[in-house]
Amino acid sequence: MEPPTLIVAFGDLHVGSTTALCPPVVHLEDGGEYHASPLQRWYWECWQRLWDHVAHDKGRLNARVLAISGGDEIEGDHHYSTQAWFVNEADQDRALLEVYRLPQTVADQWVFLRGTPAHDGPIAARTEARLRTFIALGFSLLPASPTVLSHWLWTGTVSGVRIQAKHEPSTRSYAPHMRDMAAARQAHYLWEEYHQANLDPPHLALFHHLHYPARGDYQGLTVFFVPGWQAMTAYTWRRQAAPCIRPAGALIAAVSNGFWHADFRLYRPRRSIW
Prior knowledge:
alpha/beta, Purple Acid Phosphatase, chain A, domain 2
């Protein structure tokens, strides 16, 4: 029996946003510094706890780790937003590299998905340029092709388990009691697409973009919506009814010999609203 593979799916880091994951100190190109806010320091502590947990499980299970980065890694400069700590994307890229230094010590291979053009640039140009730097620094990537490093949609078979990963799902719900139902609806849509194409559907399908965790099942296909690492912005406050921070975290799936088991690793702030 071969050792298991731990698939760690995370995304929507939005490094560069004033309400998202950020290293404690970012050294800016012009010689200045940006210091993380209390919210961002909390995200950083959760990020460290996540990868400490993955490293522990990797050693305990003698597993290899496949990290899937789900897109929208940086905030970028978009929509005239005033909620970026610096719009110079070179500074955001340096901060992102600092964020990735921790998982780099744990992950054996990487899959990078393409996010939205507002954050990743047209045709993911920023992502492709960034990944060339990552390869030079020792990241082991599963590329889309010999010349393209990131994926619009990734499919792979890991230890007998068929897996698909993509940034944005084709359906969603912002009603709290409907999120799992939206994931189930996505599983049904996806199963039908594969069935009508006379193809075997995946066992696991991972989606990002929505910034909330959810699970849905249909005919042996399980869909997960993976949470993000960004709190509310001026844009998302328009749709949020309650003063709650959605949990940050990742999906961790242990895959071995045709079987899988997956759980969310979620982090919520310990505070009272009232």
